[in-house]
């Protein structure tokens, strides 16, 4: 693992290799070679301006029209927080680590086997994964373009403030911030419950008399939330956690893939793998495909998480896009290996309904093998929660700096050494995550629908700045070093199209005929969240919220 404060030599080498691989990937995708040593084409009149700080230089460059940014911005550092100093311990490598630990594509596939098989089996998983990878690539590209132009820990709501017309600017920015933060909190709630459920499923395998009760998951939920929030308060630990989770997850996936192929004595044929559509949902195949793809969609979600460490990484306009692109590359590679290893070796869809039972039957009812491989999934999933705590707290911290939350005088503070993090914002977000656990105690069905809202809120927070960008006109946008004039536009439209599809399909009941226990209340919860945003705006935001200072707004 890289140290939080690497030497100059080690940092240079890491950056060089990252630049080479990133340039190779982007040039293959874009069809043209792209230089790794980016340089901004700055007109002569801007070069002659006498600027006292790099921030002044950036502001002057933004205010000039006709600047052609060919792929490399100046090394302009963002200002540190007003209420305390925040370090920049992240590198491109550790940023990839924290981004991938949250997205966690391959582990997401393993955890959602039970919710994917009933809607299409192997064909759904294979073709659905490719579709979601394309959507994920489009989303990552769209976010990378905006993050490259306007690197800011607020991310989406700051981009909205930059692109929106004057009259609805404050409300749109405010609503986007709440949606973005709420999506992160809902995602955290999902992981906090998944960890104890996976743990107790392992206990149940070793003790057949064990019976799971909701209160057990509730207690485990809070243990995970408290543990990960406490550790996330220490800034110097976060880069090591990110890189450690990345290495552990990749090695674990390789071990799982090899084990599944080595332990299996029966495999499906190629015809069964590609055409044997196993659908017991009650929906027609097409609708079942779109509903069942939800689990795979989560495997390419949470992509904006790395955007919100913009003040904790050098040259964010270059390094954040790299982290986003490499998250997709690593996710697709490990995810495809997992799909192939899993569904080539699942021969009975009726009994092998989750990863634990899949391994159990592949290894001829060997509990130790199932326990061991599931333990790898458990550790990686727990590691994701550290990144999620960082994600949701940085959003809350940035939003509090614009007086978006009550208690903003505390939430905006960066607590000094040994923390060097916005501790109050971490605790604020963790408390909201804790509150959602009571929804689980009241109704598991309602909690499941609440979690489904997490990914929809993410997409909605992406959609608002993308719509504004297209309305503003991409040619008129003062973009950063990461920019694709044509493919970027296509990526924007793909992301928006999938957002519209997901908003409709993910609100459908999961099975037909519909029963109260399996009803999908996602649409109801989305409406309630919308009403909450409006009420919160009327009572607080309209009076207190201050637009972020971004060039191009008025």
Automatic annotation (TrEMBL):
Keywords: Membrane, Transmembrane, Transmembrane helix, Transport. PROSITE patterns: AMINO_ACID_PERMEASE_1 (PS00218). One of its GO terms (molecular function) is transmembrane transporter activity. Its main location: membrane. InterPro entries: AA/rel_permease1 (IPR002293), Amino_acid_permease_CS (IPR004840). It is found in: Membrane. One of its GO terms (biological process) is amino acid transport. The chain crosses the membrane at residues 126-150, 171-195, 215-234, 241-262, 323-344, 369-388, 423-442, 449-470, 490-512, 519-539. GO terms for cellular component: membrane. It is a multi-pass membrane protein. This is Swainsonine transporter swnT. The gene is swnT-1.
């Amino acid at each position: 693992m890289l140290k939080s404060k690497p030497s100059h030599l080690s940092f240079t080498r890491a950056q060089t290799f990252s630049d080479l691989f990133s340039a190779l990937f982007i040039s293959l995708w874009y069809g043209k070679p792209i230089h790794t040593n980016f340089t901004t084409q700055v007109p002569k009149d801007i070069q002659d301006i006498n600027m006292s700080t790099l921030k002044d230089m950036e502001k002057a460059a933004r205010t000039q029209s006709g600047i052609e940014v060919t792929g490399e911005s100046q090394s302009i550092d963002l200002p540190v927080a007003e209420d305390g100093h925040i370090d920049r311990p992240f590198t491109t490598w550790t940023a990839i680590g924290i981004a991938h630990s949250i997205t966690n594509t391959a582990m997401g596939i393993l955890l959602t086997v039970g919710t994917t098989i009933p809607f299409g089996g192997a064909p759904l998983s294979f073709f659905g994964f490719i579709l979601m990878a394309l959507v994920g690539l489009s989303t990552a590209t769209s976010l990378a373009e905006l993050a490259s132009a306007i690197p800011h820990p607020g991310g989406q709501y700051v981009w909205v403030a930059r692109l929106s017309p004057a009259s609805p600017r404050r409300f749109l920015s405010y609503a986007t911030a709440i949606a973005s933060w709420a999506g992160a909190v809902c995602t955290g709630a999902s992981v906090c419950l998944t960890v104890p459920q996976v743990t107790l499923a392992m206990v149940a395998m070793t003790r057949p008399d064990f019976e799971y009760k909701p209160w057990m998951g509730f207690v485990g939920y809070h243990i995970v939330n408290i543990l990960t929030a406490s550790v996330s308060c220490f800034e110097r630990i976060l880069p090591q956690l990110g890189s450690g989770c990345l290495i552990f997850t990749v090695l674990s996936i390789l071990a799982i893939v090899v084990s599944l192929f080595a332990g299996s004595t029966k495999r499906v044929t190629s015809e069964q793998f590609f055409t044997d559509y196993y659908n017991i949902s009650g929906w027609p195949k097409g609708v079942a495909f779109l509903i069942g793809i939800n689990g795979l969609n989560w495997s390419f979600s949470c992509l904006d998480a790395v955007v919100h460490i913009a003040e904790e990484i050098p040259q964010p306009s270059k390094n954040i896009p790299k982290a986003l692109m490499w998250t997709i590359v690593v996710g697709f590679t490990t995810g495809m290996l997992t799909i192939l290893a899993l569904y080539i070796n699942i021969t009975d869809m009726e009994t092998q309904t989750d990863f634990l039972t899949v391994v159990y039957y592949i290894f001829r009812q060997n509990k130790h093998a199932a326990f061991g491989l599931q333990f790898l999934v458990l550790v990686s999933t727990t590691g994701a929660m550290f990144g999620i705590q960082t994600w949701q707290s940085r959003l809350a911290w940035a939003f509090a700096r614009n007086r978006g939350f009550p208690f903003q005088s505390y939430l905006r503070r960066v607590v000094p050494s040994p923390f060097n993090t916005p501790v109050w914002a971490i605790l604020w977000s963790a408390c909201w995550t804790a509150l959602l656990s009571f929804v689980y105690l009241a109704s598991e069905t309602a909690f499941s629908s609440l979690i489904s809202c997490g990914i929809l809120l993410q997409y909605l927070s992406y959609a608002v700045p993308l719509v504004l960008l297209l309305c503003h006109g991409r040619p008129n946008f003062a973009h950063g070093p990461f920019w694709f004039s044509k493919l970027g536009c296509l990526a924007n439209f793909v992301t928006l199209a999938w957002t519209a599809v997901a908003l409709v399909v993910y609100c459908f009941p999961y099975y037909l005929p519909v029963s109260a226990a399996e009803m999908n209340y996602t649409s109801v919860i989305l409406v309630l969240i919308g009403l909450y945003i409006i009420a919160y705006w009327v009572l607080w935001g309209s009076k207190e919220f201050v637009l972020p200072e971004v060039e191009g707004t008025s």
